[in-house]
Amino acid sequence: MAGALTDRQFVRVVYDALQAASCPLVEGLYLQEADSMLQLLCTPSQHRTDILAWICGSINPNFATSKAMSMRSKDPDAFTKEMAVLGQELMLCRAGDLDLIRGDVSPHRQLQFLEQLLTLVPGCSKSAGHRTNEEMILNELCADENLPHLTQMLEPTFDPWPGHIKYMASRKGTKSSSKPSKEAADVTALLQSTQSVLEQLQSECEFLNNEAQSPGVFSPSSLRVAACDLQQLMATFSHVYETDLRAYCSRDPPSFSTETDIFQRVHQLLLTCNTELEMLNEVSEASASMNEEVNRLQTQPRYWRRGEKHTLTDQLEELSRRSREFLSLLHS
């Protein structure tokens, strides 16, 4: 409905819905011009924020607590974020759509958001010219020409007889001075046989046997609830489709090349990658071997003397000791 209305028409629908919901913030305004309504509902102001807060509080009674906590917060946008979070929980907007809550987006988007919120306000009904879809469905079901079908749907019966057989069956028990014809006798026998078969089928049908124990499986009230739920689901899906899915559904499907060169290039790249991995493994092994060799070379060299392994330091100390001994012998 909103897509076929101009902003000036749409704002009247939303304003009438606010009045029908008995919003105290629009009582006594008596706005008649669409421009005044647009100024009230689509221009950033404290009055517009209060109206939006009243709608949120009517949908969620716990919103008043969140509002009080937001007012005590140091973040100036805390209350705006709380309303955006509620809109996200209702699948009507994103938590980051703060411009929508402030009123900084297009009037049509704001009016669409307000209308969707108002459909969730308990007791909110639109004007007679813009009835909800579920009301139209129920009125169509309860129309005079559809009442027999509705009664048949709520209380189904099994009556397969054609009109001419039903007429002859109704005359079966009546008295007649004339002798029944052979055709009537055949029809009577057929009716009796069919009647026995139907009685046997009825005894085997559990839903017919349990009809007395479970009356009222369908009722007008349950139909109304189902229609309301269906309308809400359709509205939610329509919003999600328009905001998130339309762009993806409108894209062209991806095209894949039918040529084989792409597989050859992928195979070549995989082979190159495998070769590089093997080279890295060999480099790691060579590095480890080189590290061991360097560590071995950094150790002090060792020399053999008299079948024993000695280091150069030990040899120098031994030579120094022997030279001192020899000098002491000379002096003596």
What would the keywords be for this entry?
332 residues, mainly alpha, 15 helices, 65% helix
Could you please describe the fold and organization of this structure?
This protein has 332 residues and is mainly alpha-helical. The protein is built from 15 helices and 2 strands. A two-stranded antiparallel ribbon has the order 1-2. β1 and β2 form a beta hairpin. The longest helix has 38 residues, at 261-298. It is elongated, with a radius of gyration of 46 Å. The termini are far apart. The model is unreliable at 126-132 (pLDDT under 50).
SSE layout and pairings?
Layout: H1 7-20, H2 34-42, H3 46-59, H4 63-72, H5 78-89, H6 98-102, H7 107-118, H8 133-141, H9 147-154, H10 163-170, H11 182-204, H12 206-209, H13 220-249, H14 261-298, E1 302-305, E2 308-311, H15 312-331
Antiparallel strand pairs: 1-2
Helix pairs in contact: 1-2, 1-7, 8-13
